[in-house]
Design a protein that fits this description.
Elements (H helix, E strand, L loop, with lengths): L14 H28 L4 H7 L2 H4 L11 H6 L3 H9 L6 E4 L6 H9 L2 E6 L2 H13 L6 E5 L2 H4 L7 E4 L24 H9 L5 E5 L5 H5 L11 E8 L2 E9 L11
Parallel strand pairs: 1-2, 1-4, 2-3, 4-5
Antiparallel strand pairs: 5-7, 6-7
The structure holds 7-methyl-guanosine-5'-triphosphate (MGP) and S-adenosyl-L-homocysteine.
């Protein structure tokens, strides 16, 4: 029986045919590259953003539906798979406070599994982007969006879990061999942890992969008795992206259910 017409691939046999075939392949590759360049231009992909844009579907699986990010959002957003994993620990929780919500990478995943999310960011543009992205995921009604400084708002916030993914000082955070908690912005990690602890001991922190682990686990000693703590390294496609610290009941061996 002869093969179906569509499955027959004409292999270039003569030198001339091979040359023509190679030229066609080159033209196709060039067209593909041009198309990609145009797309990047349209989406305002700056040289700094390019690396993250290439990972766009790891950051937001629904990227093509119209997800929007600004430059800081591109290099700071928690990849979706990691955000979903962090949210799992809060499944069924009443209120999760996302203290540094950015463009909504974490808030969206929390909203999928918790009753309510309070998403705070000091930058009004970020809050607008987070709202826009939450709409794409259909969870905007489960999130209260607040423009403000977490440190000022904290005394007035109530929640069952506080999630902390503060600025790490930009992509150059990796230049440090050992990332210490004083390098976090806008305030050091100890102060931040204490402010969060005044709300609840159930705290999740997303921090750099070059984090000083000893210093990080010592955060649990800021409470008496010390909090349960669990440290998890987060990977996407086998590449390390960050470290998540789970405190209190969010740690796997935490005592009570949330
Ligand atoms: P990265 O190390 O800049 O990217 O950020 P990547 O692709 O791992 O770079 P490579 O060159 O090392 O391969 C890794 C992840 O860290 C990002 O996807 C963000 O989730 C997170 N991240 C990076 N920064 C600079 C920040 C930040 O300032 N704040 C927060 N909360 N997360 C950040
Ligand atoms: N987890 C987020 C990314 C957070 S990046 C996501 O997945 O999208 C850190 C964010 O902290 C930035 O958006 C920055 O605007 C915000 N930020 C910086 N200082 C802040 C403060 N004092 N209070 C609240 N947000 C702050």
């Amino acid at each position: 029986m002869s093969p179906a017409k569509d499955s027959v691939v004409a292999l270039p046999r003569t030198r001339k045919q091979r040359k023509r075939f190679k030229r066609k392949v080159k033209i196709k590759a060039k067209r593909r590259a041009q198309k990609l360049e145009k797309l990047k231009e349209r989406e305002n992909v700056t040289p700094l953003v390019k690396k993250y844009w290439l990972q766009r579907y790891d950051l937001f699986s629904m990227y093509d539906v119209g997800v929007k990010l600004d430059e800081e959002g591109w290099f700071s957003v928690t990849p979706e798979e990691i955000a979903a994993r962090q949210a799992e620990r809060c499944a069924g929780a009443g209120v999760v406070i996302d203290a540094f919500a950015g463009v909504g990478g974490n808030a969206i995943q929390f909203a999928k599994v918790c009753h309510r999310v309070v998403a705070v960011d000091v930058d009004p543009n970020k809050v607008q982007l987070a709202f826009h992205n939450a709409k794409i995921y259909g969870v905007e009604d489960c999130i209260d969006f607040i423009v403000g400084d977490f440190f000022q708002l904290a005394p007035f916030l109530k929640g069952d879990v506080v999630f902390l993914s503060p600025p790490w000082g930009g992509p150059s955070y990796k230049a440090k061999e050992n990332f210490t908690l004083d390098l976090l912005k806008p305030k050091d990690g100890h102060s931040l942890f204490q402010v969060a602890q005044a709300i609840t001991p159930n705290i999740i922190m997303y921090l750099p992969r070059n984090l000083d682990m000893l210093q990080a686990s010592e955060l649990s000693w800021l409470s008496s008795p010390p909090l349960d703590v669990e440290i998890e390294e987060n990977f996407v496609r086998g590449n390390s992206k960050g470290i998540t610290l789970y405190f209190g009941d969010t740690a796997l061996h935490g005592s009570d259910a949330l």
